[in-house]
Each structure stands twice: as C-alpha cells, then as structure tokens.
Amino acid sequence: MTQTDSRVTHLPTGSYYTPSGEYDDLYRRSMEDPEGFWAEQAESLDWFKPWEKVLDWQAPYARWFVGGKLNLSYQCLDRHVQTEVKNKVAFYWEGELGETQVLTYNEMYRLTNNYAAALKRLGVKRGDKVALYLPMIPALPVFMLACARLGAIFTVVFSAFSGQALADRVEDVGAKVIITSSGMHRRGKILPLKENAVEAAVKCPCVEKIVVVKHTGHHTEMDPDRDVWLDDILAGVDEYVAPEAMDANDPLFVLYTSGSTGKPKGILHGTAGYALWIAKTLQWAFNPDQKSVFWCTADIGWITGHSYVVFAPLELGLTSVMYEGAPDFPAIDRWWQLIAKYGVTIFYTSPTAIRMFMRHGEEWPAKYDLSSLKSLGSVGEPINPEAWLWYYRNIGHERISISDTWWQTETGGFMISPTPGIQPHPLKPGSATKPMPGVDVAVLDPDGKELPNGQTGFIVIRKPWPGMLLDIYQNQELYQQTYWSRFPGYYLPGDFCMKDQDNFLWLLGRADEVIKVAGHRISTAELESSIVGHSAVAEAAACSRPDEVKGEAIILFVTLRKGTDPSPEIKAELTRHLRATIGALATPEEIFFVNLLPKTRSGKIMRRLLKAVATGATVGDTSTLDDGASIDEARAAFEELK
Ligand code: WTA
C-alpha cells in the first residue's frame, strides 16, 4: 500500500476518552502566549522554591523556570508516598526466566533512599557523574532516582553496547562510579556485563568504583580495591536521604546518541523543563488515568525508556510493567501473555517489533485476551501503513487509538503525536498527525523557505519547548553547529517531513547520516571509524538499505589493505570487530569488498551512490565522481551477492 492510498481519516470509537479540552484552542494558546501557557502547566510540579522567570531564551539556549528549585526523585516518589498512591504498584517487573517482583511507590521510595545513602557512602555527591550499565531490572530505575535525589548526573549506557563503547561514554562524561550487574539474561544466554564494566574501568582513570548488582548466578571476579557488591554496600542501610534542592536548569542526565560524527555525543537534559515536558506529553498522547497499567517496551538505555519507562509514569503516579527479556523468548507470544497477565491498558512499542509480530502471524496475539488495552503507541522510526493497520486490527481490535509519537533523544519527550488526552483524534495510518502544544513546526526547502503542503523538506522547530536539550555535554560548538546552523534560529532535528492537505505531518526518515536499525540510532561515521580501526581495513563507507522488519539494515563497502584478500573469514572477523567496538546493534547485514570507493574529486566518499547501489535504485548524477569504475565495481560486488 502506498502512503497516498492509506490516507483514510479514521476516528476511533469507544467510550474511553475523557477529553480535557479542544486541541486547537490549547495549541493556539501555547503558540500565542508560550510563557503564560507553560507557567500554568508548571503548577503541576512540586516546587521547593517557585521560579522567577518562565523562559530565558538566548538562542540557541533556552532556560526554563529560572530560579525555581525542585528534585525529580521528589516528584516521582516523595509526593506520592504522602497520598493514597503510597501503596499503589509502581512497577510489575518480570524477568526473562519468569521471576517477578512487585514494587509499590513506597518500596521504590525506600529503595531509592537506601541506594542514595549507599552511593553517598561511596563518596558520590551533587555534580558527580555516575554511569549506569544495567539490564532491565528494578535496580536501574532505582539508581536513576537515587542519582537524581543526590543531584549526581547519571549516564545510562544501553546494556547491549560493548565494553569499548561503554569506555568511550564513561571517559567522555568522566564517571566516578560504574554501576553494573553480574550479567544479564538474553534469549536464554547470560551476557557478561561486569566484564565489560571492568574493561571500561581499566581504560578510564576517572573510575574509582564498580558497584555490582547480583543478578545472574555465574561467578564474577571482584577486585577488592575497586569492586563492591550492591548487597554489601546496602547492608544495614535504612535511612532517609533529603533530596537536593536542584536548580530548574541543573543537569539531570547525559545520554549519548549518534550524529554525524564518529563519536557519539552526550545529550544533556535539565531538570524542571524535562520533568514537565515528559509528564504533560504522556498525558496528552496516551490519556492515562489512575487505573492505567502502562507498558512502554523500550529499553531504559534509550531516551524512550528514560522518559516513559522511568520518569513520566512515576511523576503521574501510574503503574507500569517492566520486562527484562526479548519479545520472542521463549516464544513469540511473550508480550501478549504479559499484556493479558497484567491487564495492560496502554501499550507503547516500536514499528520493528510490530513488523516482527506481523511476520509470525496474527494467530499469536489472537490466543490472548487483550481487551484491557485502551491505547496503543509507536516510536523510534516511521511506521509503514501496513504495520500500523496490522497493529490497529490485531492488537487494538479496531477499537482503540494509536499514538504514533515522533521525537528524539534531544527533544526529551514527544513532539508530534495524536493527543487523545486532549481530544479524540482523527488518525491516518503512517502519520504522526499534529504537533504537541508548544511545538512550532515548519517544513523548509534547502534554502530555508517554507514549503507548501504536500511537499517534502526538512522539519524544523521554531520555538523552544521545555523538554529541549540543554546542550551537548562539553561541546557547545557541536551543539550550535548540529542543530542551529543550517537554519539559524530554528532547531533542526535532521528528519524529512511532509505536511499534507489536512495539515497532518508525515515523518519520512533521516535526512542525514544517521541510520535507524530496529529503531536504534547509529551513524555511518561511527561504523566507519570502528571498521577502519581494524588492521586489515584501508577504507570503508557505511550506508543502509531498507529492511522489511528492522526498517533499515547496515551495509558496508570496504577496501582491504594489501596482504588481506576478501574471504568469508575476514567478513566474519570484521563483523566481530564491529560488535566488540560498538555492540550487537552494529552488526552489518552485508560487507562488500571493493578496490575503490566512489569519491568526489576532493576525496569525499559518495555514500549516496553506494546507497543507490545497495538498494538497486538508479545511481543518478555521477558527474562529480572521480573514477566511474568504482561504482561499477560496487555494483558488481552487489550483483554477485544476489
Ligand atoms: C526517528 C527516539 C518517524 C526519527 C525517540 C528521529 C521517528 C529519530 C519516530 C530519533 C516516529 C522517532 N516516526 N520517525 N514516530 N520516532 N523517529 O534519538 O528519525 O533514538 O530523528 O529517539 O528516530 O531517534 P532517538
């Protein structure tokens, strides 16, 4: 089905909605008087000290609620334990092996205080950096909250990143402590997280301690000077730790993500604006109520998990499901089983997961009672209309709304999404629909002129919003250059977008060198810099081609140094190298060996041409190419494989 065919306006029926107003009115107000609008919204936070100024906008830096003081762990826990939310379930946790844990708000509160006390005893204080390299176990959100409580800046590193990738992030952020677990379960295997943490600690002199959460039973070597078990530092601790009064714009966390450079950049988020943005956007996009059981399947190692597994649901006092394992282990029905078991009402996942389920057939979800569901969501990459409709029919039973949420690590929370929490929303399969209140979107041509509806161009955001990143950690220049230089004064997300005749927005993928593999963000430069680090490789170019399940798949074109010939062994070796230096998400779909890479006369690799070859598209204009033979060669390598 093409995108044009799919533009059927659809308004889900059902009595679920309790709209809180009219979208158009709210949106208009947020545009006409942003400061008044956000001041009103910010009443929903608990302030230790009220702000003096709603917005200080010195482009490209926005500072919200200047002068205000608060603490995000207080927002998520302390204020709830003073109410009937105290004994409500915060998390239903389930491990891959089927073990379970039920954590109430009160238990989360107690654990957070104790973990904060233990960290304090290790010498962690306000402003220190802590790296969290943990699987999806309760200790991860508890440590994030404990760091927020102490005012320590945390950086969560996705557990599928390698020891080297962890080291890169630990070093950049300057972490004093790495918190990890003995290992993690993935599809029946145990992955050695602690060993990776040791690799990072050895490479980074900033690391003083490794705290280890006992999670897998296998033997773990402990260095008595550096390594401590969480259980040991918690022994005998049962105390209240007063939450630090953080400045509204104090940094909360750094989360590394890929951009156009070989090194991931540290996206720095603040406290008040971020806290407000994620809570409001969750309400607007999913319309939860106090009986909701929310399940965001994202790993906490990505922004989706930070904002919508940990902080926003806790701020709103919701009950969430948290699951450690893979969706297809032990069988492809694991998620549907969990929805039925916990009575999940809001289910939020990725197009890659939906396409994987589609491939296995609708008989799997059909075995389970999914009638508790009231709202569905999608995130991470464009959702194709076929996948949208499959999700709508087989999971939502044509009864409930889908919120396709478009946003980024940098934006903190949702930017474009249906907003059933404001008003019932007409939907079009494949479109993220309309901007959130406060989000001023335009679609521009390469010269910065606004495009008429129906044409594809660069999406920009013309006003600051509360969830906006504070900066790139320790790299103001890169911050300005990446997001603010192409169209001065406007934030550039780096995606293509088209606004249709009804003003619905269609997000059409990245306009830069970022690849989305199964929704995970990785850049061509990162892949290239990893692979040229292998002694057999002279030069390399990375690109992607569309993949039916993963959205995009990684393709590499490699020239080998003299003395190494192309072979299946060297291919396997290079794949191993990518996984060791970055992680499993860097696994290439194909590696092609060539003698020449297509380059411009000034020596720039023409990835556009390689991508065309890898996707079988016409190569187009090659007039700037230095040596036409290179493209014939790449094509021959590709054809040979077919
Ligand atoms: C893509 C993930 C289309 C987009 C929250 C963006 C999407 C990048 C959508 C950010 C969506 C995310 N429709 N594309 N609903 N959601 N993207 O930082 O290209 O991991 O720029 O944040 O994901 O990826 P990130």
TrEMBL record:
Similarity-based family = Belongs to the ATP-dependent AMP-binding enzyme family.
Does this entry carry the keyword Acetylation?
yes
UniProt keywords (A-Z) are:
Acetylation, ATP-binding, Ligase, Membrane, Nucleotide-binding, Transmembrane, Transmembrane helix
Source organism (scientific name): Candidatus Dehalogenimonas loeffleri
This chain belongs to the protein called Acetate--CoA ligase
Q: What is the lineage of its organism?
A: Bacteria, Bacillati, Chloroflexota, Dehalococcoidia, Dehalococcoidales
Please list the residue ranges annotated as the AMP-binding enzyme C-terminal domain.
526-604
Which Pfam families does UniProt cross-reference here?
A: ACAS_N, AMP-binding, AMP-binding_C
Q: What gene makes this protein?
A: acs
Occurrences of domain Acetyl-coenzyme A synthetase N-terminal (ranges): 23-76
Transmembrane residue ranges: 130-161
**Enzyme Commission code(s) on record:** 6.2.1.1
Q: What class of enzyme is it?
A: ligase
Alphabetized PROSITE patterns for the sequence:
AMP_BINDING
Superkingdom assignment: Bacteria
Q: What range(s) does the AMP-dependent synthetase/ligase domain occupy?
A: 80-465
Extract one GO molecular function annotation from the record: acetate-CoA ligase activity
